[in-house]
Automatic annotation (TrEMBL):
Residues 1-32 form the signal peptide. Keywords: Antiport, Ion transport, Membrane, Signal, Sodium, Sodium transport, Transmembrane, Transmembrane helix, Transport. This is Sodium:proton antiporter NhaD. It is a multi-pass membrane protein. Residues 63-437 form the Citrate transporter-like domain. The gene is nhaD_2. It comes from Shewanella algidipiscicola.
Length: 492
């Protein structure tokens, strides 16, 4: 029996069950008609009405997310409701079996994953807001324009920066930084900002694929021990091809002109460069926390937030003294504009910045993490992984993992693969690492970088805008796979 026949047989009872949905939805006997592998194990809900309903709810929620631009409905709303309904179904079934402790532990595990992501994002956003307030990005924009960088040059520059920074930092933080730059340079040029954001997402995801620190999935593969630290470098050229091919095509659709706005000199406010230094220190601390201490990277990020708070305290305490010195220097040089360097007393109010954070994006992450976690707890991710790795050719299965990561978050997909731990060569483990890392670029909702940029460039970089370029991105996806199969043939 081929995999498609097996899948058809598995889903055959679904239409009949769905016809009885309204009558049987709240029936414990129907919802909990599942099997247990052994006492104390989780329930397999993949072939039950409860599982089918949860899957339908998730698909419906994603359809609403995809229609955000047309419906003017913020993407967080449907996934929040879907997460509540899916885990409500799980809780109802597990209570009926007297196993509520298992479902509670699973929910808390997924909530912890989201909490780490939430705090990580809040720190990154706070640093970016602080650098924005200190006019760092205004100065960078003016520097680019004054040196004659065209929009196409900025497109390539930010893309390459994202590609080479994301292996050291993570792709999410890198994308947020580069997006802030292109939004300053682009101004009201929506077409440029859209293409530049797509380019940044592709570059950040591709750059993160050849480094254990570039993405959570690469960290998982490294921690599992199936790929050693130095072996990730074999993915450098395939990752570069993944970025360069779509970037080269998109660059022809960007006018090779220079923005004429903001050509005047921009003076950064006091403390701007030191905040950049603190941010780099924060990223390094996050990496070290995970690599050397075995602790979550969010610990380093939150420590860095504390350092930024102390720096704000220092600026406030030394503000009056700085004003006197700046005024004396400005009078000597007859340059009163130097006083603009001082800015406000503190670079930011952290609580104000948290209130102004892109909460739609943060809540969308909550919904996605909980929805996918719920479906995984029901057994769907294990089902898909088992179907692919036991019935398909391994190469095709690993390529499909990348396609799935564009729809479902790549973290649970990779977790399911690592849990199965199929017998594969080093070349195949590198292939699935590559596809899981870059496959999320196919859709804006396929990676944390894409979702974050939809919030940062709200109304400009959207799901639909990204979808128009998916065929071009798919060319890069296919080319990177072929490059890996050719260059690293000896590893298979």
């Amino acid at each position: 029996m081929n995999p498609f026949q097996a899948l058809k047989l598995h889903l055959a009872p679904m239409p009949a069950k769905l016809m009885l949905l309204l009558a049987m939805l709240f029936s414990p006997a129907t919802l909990a008609s599942s099997t247990m592998a052994s006492a104390g194990s989780t329930l397999d809900l993949t072939a039950t009405l409860g599982g089918y309903v949860a899957l339908a709810i998730f698909i419906l929620a994603y359809l609403f997310v995809m229609s955000e631009e047309a419906l003017q409905l913020r993407k967080s709303k449907p996934v929040l409701v879907a997460a509540g309904l899916i885990w409500g179904i799980i809780g109802f079934i597990y209570v009926g079996h007297g196993m509520s402790a298992l479902s509670e532990a699973a929910f808390k595990h997924n909530l912890l994953e989201y909490a780490e992501l939430l705090l990580f994002l809040l720190v990154a956003m706070t640093y970016i807001n602080a650098m924005e307030e200190r006019k760092l990005f205004d100065a960078l924009r003016a520097w680019m324009i004054n040196r004659g960088f065209s929009l196409r040059s900025v497109f390539w520059l930010t893309g390459f920066m994202a590609f080479f920074i994301s292996p050291i930092a993570d792709n999410l933080t890198t994308a947020l930084l580069m997006c802030a730059v292109v939004m300053k340079v682009g101004g009201d040029n929506r077409a440029f900002i859209t293409l530049a954001c797509i380019n940044i997402v592709i570059a950040a995801n591709a750059g993160g694929a050849f480094s254990p620190f570039g993405d959570i999935t690469t960290l998982m593969v490294w921690q599992k021990g199936v790929v050693q630290f130095e072996q990730f470098i074999a993915l450098f050229l395939p990752s570069l091809v993944n970025y360069l091919l779509p970037a080269a095509i998109m660059s022809f659709f960007i006018a090779n002109t220079t923005e004429q706005a903001a050509i005047e000199k921009v003076t950064m406010k006091r403390g701007a460069r030191r905040i950049v230094g603190l941010f780099l220190l924060t990223i390094a601390t996050a990496v070290c926390c995970h690599s050397f201490l075995g602790l979550p990277p969010v610990l380093g990020m939150m420590t860095g937030l504390g350092l930024l708070q102390f720096f704000g305290f220092y600026l406030r305490k030394t503000f009056e003294q700085a004003v006197v010195k700046a005024r004396e220097r400005a009078e000597r040089e007859n340059n009163l504009k130097r006083l603009e360097q001082l800015g406000n007393v503190v670079p930011f109010d952290v609580f104000t910045r948290i209130a102004r954070a892109e909460w739609d994006t943060l809540l969308f992450f909550y919904g996605v993490v909980l929805c996918v976690g719920g479906l995984g707890f029901m057994g769907y991710l294990a089902l898909v992984s088992e179907l692919m790795y036991q019935h398909w050719d391994i190469t095709y299965a690993n390529i499909t993992v990348g396609l799935l990561s564009a729809i479902i978050d790549n973290i649970p997909v990779m977790f399911a693969v690592l849990t199965m731990n199929p017998e594969m060569s080093l070349g195949q483990w590198l292939l699935v690492t590559l596809t899981a890392g870059v496959g999320g670029s196919l859709l804006s909702i396929g990676s944390a970088a894409g979702v974050a940029l939809m919030g940062q460039a709200r109304g400009v970089y959207t799901f639909t805008a990204h979808l128009k370029w998916t065929p071009v991105i798919a060319l890069g996806y296919a080319a990177s796979i072929l490059t890996h199969l050719w260059l690293n043939a000896g590893l298979f």
